[in-house]
Amino acid sequence: MASAKKSCTEDNLLCSICLDVFRNPVSTRCGHNFCRTCITKFWDKKQNYNCPICNHLFQTRPYLQVNTLLSEMAAQCRTSVPVKVQPCVEPAEVPCDVCTGTQLKAVKSCLVCLISYCQTHLEPHQRVAGLKKHRLVEPMDRLEEIMCKKHNQLLELYCLIDQVCVCQICTETDHRFHHAVPLKEEYEVKLAQLGKMEAEVQQMIHERKQKIKEIKDTVKRSKADAAREIAGSVQVLTALMHQIEKCQEDLNQMVKERLKDTEKQAEDLIKELEQEIEDLTNKSSKVKPLSHIEDHFHFLQAFRSLTDPPPTRDWMTVEVRPPSHVGTLRRSLDQLEETLSMEMKKLPDGELKSVQQYEVDVTLDPDTAHPRLILSKDGKLVRDGVVEKEVPDNPRQRFTKYIHVLTRQSFSSGRFYFEVQSKDKTAWYIGVARESIDRKGESLMTPETGYWSLFLDGGKKGLVFTDFPPVRVPLRAELQKVGVFVDYDEGLVSFYDVEARVHLYSATGCTFSEPLYPFLCPCNYDYEGTNSAPLIISPVNQTD
Q1: Which of 14, 273, 414, 429 is the Cys-Cys partner for 521 at CB 3.0 to 4.6 Å?
Q2: Lowest mean pLDDT among 16-25, 344-353, 365-374, 471-480
Q3: Where are the domains of the chain?
Q4: In terms of Cα–Cα distance, which of 22, 37, 30, 100 is closest to 68?
């Protein structure tokens, strides 16, 4: 191809853009010639109109006219040029913008022409003096995007103030007071930021995948808990239903037997009464004719022949009492309650174990403790010291009326559980309280005032939930350890007898809008020695 073109007077008939024989050659005012299509496409990509060879800038897009003489010479020369057969460019490579038909791979891009050239079409830039001044770079796509549209200069700097790419002229005009750095320098900075961002994104993805796994594990555990709960409830309720049926059957049998005994007694008495009536009737039938005898002798003889009246019972003291069923239903219900309690004890992995998994490690806060209280160094034990001691002045936090103490830890969501040993005590308060409770006055300790607690008063009320009015809680034996479970989001506070592994009481439908603190009150120490034992926050032992 090169030899054929040289026979056509070398450069005179070759377009410097497509490097092929002219097709419809046109001339610019600066005296250079190009194919009409080539120079038109060249200017279509730019906002300013300059000559690709000498870079002469035209104020307006020039009107182009075909050079007739050059066109005729090119037509004669073209007939002697063989057809080029070239390989296709790979998809990932930058194609030559000049090649027509099958495109070759570009080896350089011109930042002046804004065109990418293959090795063949790059040849004029390596030979022609005017083109040698053009800046060549590695092949790039969309060259028009890296040129400043205002100054037609390469965007080779980065303005750190406006965060935009600028040319050298921009830094001397619109951005003259801004700090600009080479694109490569900012590229390396941004690349490092991108690496950090990618690491953060990957970490966030990892965290969310972990959260998904956590949610799925929760659902899995929930399904297992639900299945276990259903199985336990079926066991208990089935036994309870059987016991109810048995109690109903026994009750019916007992009532029927008592009715049968009453009916038998009544029947025997009726028979005895009927027999006496018959005997008395016979006696009457013998007595009545004597009343008609007027002869004194015969009357007295006949009267002597009468036997004594048949023996009879004093029926005034005889009565048939209806059977009494008082207490029968109560005794049946007591049996049911005993059965239910026995069935609940058969469930070691029941409700208490399911809430113990939410154990939290809490310690008592000395800044909230009433001056009478004595706390252990580890914050796990509290007892009444009787005498008020000197304490740091923190009037906002400390209780001054009731001998209460809060924990250091508070909870504003989720679930939590803790246990308190109350062995050998005759009075105490154990529960949770909201942050804004009155720590100075004598307000009632109720949910309305911010307390959800159990109160043990061994001498008077027994065990109650502190509400208004108080709710009595059944207690079968000494309560040695109390478990407290709170589901903040569900509004639930539950209390458990840990040793007996039974549920004591639950406050449901609670509304929590601020942090909740576990709180303890050991109540007053009696000088006679009662209630001197401490309250102790104990670790959970799920194997109990």
Answers
A1: 429
A2: 344-353
A3: 2-146, 216-347, 352-538
A4: 22
